[in-house]
């Protein structure tokens, strides 16, 4: 089971929300989390509304073949910008299903909102009236963690941070900005990890985003048997059980 603590814009804890998640598969129908910007709204049937629907349709087409896509639709104040990213190990068919579900769900959860982001286990989708491509998103961030602790917290934290940092070094050099691996912890336990960036970031931005997220490990998941940070530009996850899809 997982608990979540959400931090709002710029990681300022305006409020904390804790609840329990049931573990789901890649095609789980419920999102892990979503955030509505609640800053600007649009009217139904307006140019922004029409442009947003065009954008979502474009992402549904552009993303599945490669696992990532970005687009901008409209002009002047009616322009909407968006990206969608599928987890690097997710098959194309599951990627397509996830982005399609996210496109529909985000409109229901953030109706008439000019900016929103939604995370699933297999993908994320984000749109805004402000162009954000190539900029690290430090505003949208969610912590998820297993409610159970390991026995040796200090040692586990050190090993996990080092392991994820190694994955960060691998991911920012990779074409897909994605890396996953496993590491033996002894006593018949294995640590599994995954890191990923949205591909609108440069290599250096990807590394900074991941390293900053990993540095929050003590705040996010101190001694927890599993955890993840979901961000608008990058994310990481670690578990003591295998969760990556073998291709």
Automatic annotation (TrEMBL):
Top-level taxon of the source organism: Eukaryota
PROSITE patterns membership: GNK2
Signal peptide (residue range): 1-28
Subcellular location(s) per record: Secreted
Pfam families with a match to the protein in the record: Stress-antifung
This protein's GO CC annotations: extracellular region
Record keywords, A-Z: Repeat, Secreted, Signal
Domain Gnk2-homologous: 30-132, 138-243
CDD domains: Gnk2-like (cd23509)
Entry similarity comment: Belongs to the cysteine-rich repeat secretory protein family.
Protein name per UniProt: Gnk2-homologous domain-containing protein
């Amino acid at each position: 089971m997982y608990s979540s603590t959400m931090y709002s814009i710029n990681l300022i804890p305006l409020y904390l929300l804790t609840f329990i998640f049931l573990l789901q598969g890649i095609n789980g129908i419920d999102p892990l989390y979503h955030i509505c910007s609640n800053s600007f709204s649009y009217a139904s049937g307006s140019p922004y509304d029409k442009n947003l629907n065009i954008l979502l349709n474009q992402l549904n087409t552009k993303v599945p073949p490669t696992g990532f896509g970005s687009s901008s639709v409209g002009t002047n104040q009616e322009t909407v910008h968006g990206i969608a990213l599928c987890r690097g190990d997710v098959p194309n068919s599951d990627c397509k299903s996830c982005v399609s579900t996210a496109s529909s769900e985000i409109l229901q959860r953030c109706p008439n909102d000019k900016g929103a982001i939604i995370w699933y286990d297999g993908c994320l989708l984000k749109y805004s009236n402000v162009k954000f491509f190539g900029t690290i998103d430090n505003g949208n961030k969610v912590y998820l963690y297993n409610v159970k602790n390991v026995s040796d917290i200090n040692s586990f934290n050190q090993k996990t941070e080092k392991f994820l940092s190694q994955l960060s070094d691998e991911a920012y050099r990779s074409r897909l900005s994605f890396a996953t691996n496993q590491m033996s912890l002894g006593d018949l336990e294995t640590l599994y990890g995954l890191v990923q960036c949205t591909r609108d970031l440069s290599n250096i931005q990807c590394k900074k985003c991941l390293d900053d997220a990993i540095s929050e490990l003590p705040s996010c998941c101190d001694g927890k048997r599993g955890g993840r940070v979901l961000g608008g530009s990058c994310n990481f996850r670690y578990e003591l059980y295998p969760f990556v899809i073998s291709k």
